[in-house]
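BACKBONE GEOMETRY TOKENS:
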Amino acid sequence: MSRTSAQLASDDLSLARRCAGGDVEAVRIVTAANNQCLFRAAWSILKDRSEAEDAVQSAYLSAFAAIDTFAGRSSLSTWLTRIVINEALRRLGALNRRRLQFEEEGVAMLQDYRTTEEPDVVLARGQLRAIMERAVAELPDAFRTVFVLREVEGFSVEETSEALDIPAATVKSRLFRARRKLQMSLAPEVRNALVGSFPFAGVDCERLTTRLIKALAASASSALTN
């Protein structure tokens, strides 16, 4: 039997209260449920795995510092997504300013894109993921984030609208145009592999959660000594 919206909202509020009280297990529950979604949202803006992971951790720290303000008017996932999107946009602006400075100085800014495949992932699967990520990365900025939230993460039109602070009609039009652009560059069998793209689970997910809990503990310790 599926839970009602009221039950889900109650669960979110309960988790938020537990996190506000310093409950480490509640923090683990929240991060395990949201790490991949938030990473993908950040990546859709920054297009860099390391920057996206850092953005997610910073967003979590900001969110948990203000978790007592969560009122349950939207889902906890939507609330967190909005925070990580704002953090990713802030970082993107800073990155663009730094890149412009380097370009003006005549310095080429080169970055290697490295990933570590899980042992059981075959080479062909890795190549397919790379094809998908490149294709989505080439979408216009406005289309890419809508596409990742709707098609990869399964956000509803309303949730995407709220997370990005844009009208629902804009979400629909951007998703339609993103799909059209991808249809021109990807074969049907490649599009079917989309759900497996942008992996951020297993070891990556646990590493981020561990880093976050240590950072929260350090922050709490610092507050007590000041």
Observations:
- DSSP finds ten helices and no strands in the chain.
- Residues 105-121 have pLDDT under 50 and may be disordered.
- The CA atoms of residues 81 and 210 lie 20 Å apart.
